[in-house]
Design a protein that fits this description.
Elements (H helix, E strand, L loop, with lengths): L16 E3 L2 E2 H32 L11 H12 L4 H15 L4 H12 L1 H18 L6 H24 L7 H33 L1 H21 L22 H16 L1 H8 L4 H9 L3 E2 L2 E2 L7 H23 L6 H18 L1 H8 L7 H28 L5 H23 L7 H35 L1
Helix pairs in contact: 1-3, 1-6, 1-7, 1-8, 3-16, 4-5, 4-6, 4-16, 5-6, 5-8, 6-15, 6-16, 7-8, 7-12, 7-15, 9-15, 9-16, 9-17, 10-16, 10-17, 12-15, 13-15, 13-17, 14-17, 15-16
Length: 462
């Protein structure tokens, strides 16, 4: 049945418990993602404002290969766009596509290269993409390399975290993904902060250059931990794992894809803070701090900071619950995450209303938005990753991990589409809409969480 075809884990079991009570391989995977996410979030924090303030300026955009054709293609679907709206579309396409391509990276790993070599290929492609960001003419080609590289790396790193654990070790696997998420968010904290300050002080390309340097550090970290990583798992002809999927496998796949689809709306509500949310901060928030103006891109560092702070607290709570025999079920954790993200965006209706009247609002409001969004994200995303790693059939484990990132791709497409309404809607209505997105997903989860819990988890534990 389905349970028999799920990977049993175990590269680091049981002797490798040397990193916070987890296999040593978790440390190398986590720190690889720290520096890779430093590079990604540092570059992403600059990207929107770089396009609006520099790349789309008269005389500059004409020198970017393919820019005019891309704008024509997008405007054929959307109608004429302002520079802000066009930049938001490009930004959301980029941040969306980096979460679309992992399904192809998963297929490449499952069928041909294995997870480890696919990760190395991804790191090399991303390093080349960051290097090309130094040349305005190659801007779109650089983004393409970054998208392809992330597709190879992102899902396969997550799969390897799951492969460190036995099938029945669900609680530790979920906590491992929470630790992994905290390491990611060290990069999400440092990247926007450091790259934002460098870009403001020395120019855009210095900020982008730092992102490229840290991508090389990520690759070096991964290679240093090679012997501690779980072995590659790819389909081999003539083995049991290469056989067709059973009925139970298809049922699990359908349930997992349903969960991924539900997560699209809260994903859009969460990631909008990095798109139109930055425009709100740039135009309506008092950014002065002890006589210094905080760079707008550096606000994205708050997401990483609050995710880091949330992880140890939640892990401590979940461990205590596990000792007492009543850890919050996975589906309930996901539902709570959606509820918190809905509340974060609903809260922003208050300062957004003031901004609609032309007032400048205090920085405490975006700080609270980032804090609550990070808490909600930490509830639902590591739990969802652990669930996919555990419940997806072995034959398509990497592919399914790529599929969960499709929800982030579609969520980011929705972010970009809705961000084009920023100049037309009241800001209060804009944030209320995103609260409704997350609340709708929460309501769906309230109805389906128990049957899905029984289907995906209780059967595996038997």
């Amino acid at each position: 049945m389905a349970a028999a075809s799920i990977p049993s884990g175990g590269a680091g079991e049981p002797a490798g418990h040397s990193f916070l009570g987890h296999p040593k391989g978790l440390a190398y995977l986590a720190f690889t993602e720290t520096w890779e996410r430093f590079s990604f979030y540092g570059m992403s924090a600059l990207l929107l404002l770089y396009m609006i303030q520099h790349l789309l300026a008269p005389g500059v955009a004409d020198g970017v290969h393919g820019f005019a054709g891309l704008r024509s293609a997008i405007e054929s679907l959307t109608g004429p766009l302002s520079n802000q709206a066009f930049a938001s579309q490009i930004f959301s396409l980029y941040t969306g596509l980096v979460y679309f391509t992992p399904i192809f990276g998963g297929l490449l790993a499952d069928r041909l290269l294995g997870q480890r070599r696919t990760v190395v290929l991804g790191a090399l492609l991303m390093t080349a993409g960051h290097a090309l960001m130094a040349y305005e003419a190659g801007f779109l080609f650089a983004l393409s390399l970054l998208i392809a590289g992330t597709g190879c790396l992102k899902g396969n790193i997550s799969v390897q975290v799951g492969h460190l654990y036995r099938l029945t070790d669900g609680g530790r696997r979920t906590r491992a993904f929470a630790i992994f998420s905290a390491a990611i968010n060290v990069g999400a904290l440092l990247g926007p902060l450091v790259c934002g300050i460098l870009a403001q002080s020395y120019g855009w390309h210095v900020g982008f250059g730092m992102a490229g340097v840290l991508m090389l550090v990520a690759l070096a970290t991964y290679m240093a931990g090679w012997k501690h990583l779980p072995p590659d798992r790819k389909r081999q002809r003539g083995t049991a794992e290469s056989s067709g999927l059973a009925t139970g496998d298809w049922r699990n796949i359908a349930a997992l894809l349903f969960l991924a689809a539900i997560s699209i709306l809260p994903c859009a509500a969460y990631f909008q803070e990095m798109n139109a949310g930055l425009l709100f901060i740039d135009a309506s928030v008092d950014r002065s701090l002890f006589g210094w103006t905080v760079p707008t891109p550096s606000f994205n560092a708050l997401d990483g900071l609050f995710c880091i702070l949330a992880v140890p607290t939640l892990i401590a709570v979940w461990r205590r619950q596990a000792r007492l025999g009543g850890e919050t079920p996975e589906m309930t954790k996901i539902t709570i995450g959606y509820m918190i993200i809905a509340g974060a965006n609903l809260m922003m209706v208050i300062p957004a209303g003031w901004a609609d009247r032309g007032e400048v609002v205090g920085a405490i409001w975006p700080v609270l938005l980032y804090a609550l969004n990070a808490l909600g994200f930490t509830f639902y995303w590591p739990t969802l990753l652990a669930l996919f790693a555990r419940a997806a059939p072995a034959q398509v484990n990497s592919t399914m991990m790529g599929a969960v990132f499709l929800s982030v791709f579609l969520g980011n497409l929705l972010v970009g589409h809705v961000a084009t309404w920023w100049e037309a809607m009241s800001h209060a209505s804009f944030f209320a809409l995103h609260a409704a997105f997350a609340a709708a997903a929460m309501v769906v989860m309230l109805f389906v969480r128990r049957p899905l819990q029984r289907m995906l988890l209780d059967e595996i534990d038997q």
